[in-house]
Amino acid sequence: MGEEMLRLGGVAVIAVSIALVLKNQRPELALQVSVVTGIVLLAAAIAIAGEVKQRAEEFMRNYSVDGAGIAAVVKITGIAYAAQFSADICRDAGESAVDSRIELAGRLMMLLAALPMVFSAAETAILTYVSPEVNIKGNITVKARQLARPEPDKLLPQVKNIIAVSSGKGGVGKSTVAANLAVALALQGYKVGLLDADIFGPSQPKMFNLEEARPYMEEVEGRELIKPAENYGVKMLSIGFFVNKNDAVLWRGAMASNALKQLIGDANWGELDYFLIDLPPGTSDIHLTMVQTLAITGAVVVSTPQEVALADARKGISMFTGDKVNVPVLGLIENMAWFTPAELPENKYYIFGKEGCKRLAEELNVPLLGQIPIVQSICEGGDQGKPG
C-alpha cells in the first residue's frame, strides 16, 4: 500500500511539472495533461477503495460490526473525492462558476449520505439509554404539533368585510381615522377587529389604551392561536404588543410581511362583521402582502387637503385600482379639512387648503366619504387612549 502511494505521488508530481511547463505556451495541452492525470489517479483510488472495502467487510464479519456506518463513510469519501476532482477540472479550465456549483452539489450529496448514520445513532442511543424494548426501529418520524396555517383564500372565513385604511403620506391622521371608525362601528353593534399593520410606526396600542397589553396563546381546534387584545368592543392586534415601545423596528420587508401574516393567520379573530387594517403610509410590499393574503372588500384613503398630501393620495388610489392589486376604493376621507375656534363657531380657517380631497375625488371618480375638521378633543382622545 505504501509503495503504491509513492508511485501515485510520483506520477502526480511529474504531471504537475509538465503542466506548469506547458501552461504558458500550450495551455490546452496542459489542461489535457491535468485531466488525464486526474483520471489515472481516480482509477488508482477506486482500486484502493475496493481493497479497503474488502478489508472493512472482513473486519465486520470477524467482529460482528454493523456495516451501515462504515459503508456510509466510504460513500461520503467517494463523493467528496469525485466532487473535488470535477471541481478542480472546471477550475483549471477557467469555469469558476461551474466548479462552485459542483462543490455545492457534492456537499448536499454528502449530507444525504450521512442521514442514515444520524438515524442509526438516534436509534442506538434510545435503545441504550432508554430501554432496549422500545419499538423505534424504522419508526423515527417528524410530527408537527401545530396544525398548518390555512391557505390564503381560506383565511378569516368568519369575517364578512375586510376594509383597508390607507394614506399616501404619513401624518395625515390615517391611524386616528382607523381607530375612530372601528369604535364607531362597534358602538353601532357590529363585531369589529382592527389589525395595526403599520409595522414601523404602530400607534393603535396607545390609541386604545392597550400599551401594557400582552396577548397570549389559546388552543382552538388543535391550533395554538394568538388571542387579540380588546377594548371599546374592538379586537385588536399590533406588532407594538411584541416589541419594546421605545425601540425602533428595524426589519426588512420580508420579515415585516411574515409578521403580519402571523397576526392574521395565527390569531383567533373569530366571527367579525368588519375587519379593519391600518396600513402603513405610502405604497410598499406590505400593501402587496395584504392584498395577496386577504380578500379585501375595499379601501379607504385618508388625506389632508394639502397639495403635497394629495399627490401621494393619488398614487395610493392608483395602487389599489391598478391591475396588480385591483381592490375597490370605497372613498376618500379629507382629514384636517378646516379649523373652527370655539369663540368663533361660524368661522372656518382652511389651514391646509380648501376642499383638496373633494376636487381629487371628483377627478378620479371616487366618493368623498367625509371632511373631518381639526378638533382638539379628537387629538386628546388619541393621546389618552379614548377614541370615539
Structural features, described:
There is one protein chain. By secondary structure, the chain is of the alpha/beta class. The protein has 2 domains: 2-129, no CATH class; 152-384, Rossmann fold (3-Layer(aba) Sandwich). The protein is built from 11 helices and 10 strands. It has helices at residues 2-25, 27-63, 67-92, 96-129, 174-187, 204-207, 253-265, 285-293, 307-321, 356-364, 376-384; strands at residues 159-167, 192-196, 217-220, 223-226, 229-231, 234-238, 272-278, 298-303, 329-339, 368-374. The protein has an 8-stranded mixed β-sheet, with helices on both faces. Helix 3 (67-92) packs antiparallel against helix 4 and helix 7 runs parallel beside helix 8 (285-293). The protein is elongated. The mean pLDDT is 80.
Our count of domains comes out at: 2
Strands, count: 10
Examine the coordinates and then state which fold CATH places here, giving the name of the CATH topology of the largest domain.
Rossmann fold
Shape: elongated
- Which percent bin holds the helix content? 40-55%
Low-confidence stretches: none
Number of alpha- plus pi-helical segments: 11
| CATH homologous superfamily (4th level) name of the largest domain | P-loop containing nucleotide triphosphate hydrolases
- The name of the CATH architecture of the largest domain is 3-Layer(aba) Sandwich
